[in-house]
């Protein structure tokens, strides 16, 4: 800590405290200068020396106004002056207290040791026939020690309050960082949802638009059906985007989540796109919400990949399980009737399966995928289903 503190503007409280300290020091000086006939003191000082002592005492009292800026210098000067003058004792005690409050204990105790030596010198110079030397010395040392101890108590209390304040600020900062981290996780989850939902919708649009392009001889009924699917998928994609934007505007939130009840509609949409999907259900009981949501995303990603990489292939969706045994979700497709579409060009191939593997892992399940013996592709996942 710097020996010289930066001066600051005095507030109303500082004016009151400084004025009280000055008046108290002056009162001590007047009491020390008072003479009592029944208790004569020796030796008697000359008038001019007593005048010098009074003037220096007044300057010592006035110096207390700057004790916050120079606590060490003022305390040491007043301690040294107290060795030869008794009238400065009040100002010296106030300086010791202020030093203990504003400086480290090591500095305060060092100055206190100096004040004990000054008390010894003062007791030796100004002996009192009515009080033994040792009593005067011990009384002065005890009074200075009490003032220094009081100042150290205030110093440690202020440090404790500052420490508690810092801990509160630190805790508030940690809470804010945790909230931001939670928001970041929510937005990452939303990014996965956007990939799953919009990827599914846009793949439907691509399939039907491609059919209209390469089937100019399609009947009016087929064209109308494809146009209906394109219109509904585009409308639903816009609805999903509106929901995403609405969630992004809020501090924290999440998209409306699908359930197991939406699987049938998902399969029907894929079947209408010409994927020839067979849906096999073999579970009983209410599937937990988290498990059902993960199952829906697995089927959605599997059907999307079939449309991307094996358009027109026969597909089988299997969902079976029971409480305690878990839920098995499988999407298996045969070989594509035609050549696999070109998937080069950095379209994010494989990102859907990576995100799906992370989703299944967070649900405490496991995911398997790869080609099967018949030349097709198999995507299988097991999800826990507690009793």
UniProtKB/TrEMBL annotation:
CDD domains: HATPase_UhpB-NarQ-NarX-like. The keyword Protein biosynthesis does not apply. Its EC number is 2.7.13.3. Residues 187-251 form the Signal transduction histidine kinase subgroup 3 dimerisation and phosphoacceptor domain. The keyword Acetylation does not apply. It catalyses: ATP + protein L-histidine = ADP + protein N-phospho-L-histidine. InterPro entries: DUF7134 (IPR055558), HATPase_C_sf (IPR036890), Sensor_HK_TwoCompSys (IPR050482), Sig_transdc_His_kin_sub3_dim/P (IPR011712). One of its GO terms (cellular component) is membrane. Residues 333-352 are annotated as: Disordered. One of its GO terms (molecular function) is ATP binding. The chain crosses the membrane at residues 15-35, 47-66, 72-97, 109-127, 133-155. Residues 12-150 form the DUF7134 domain. It comes from the Bacteria. This is histidine kinase.
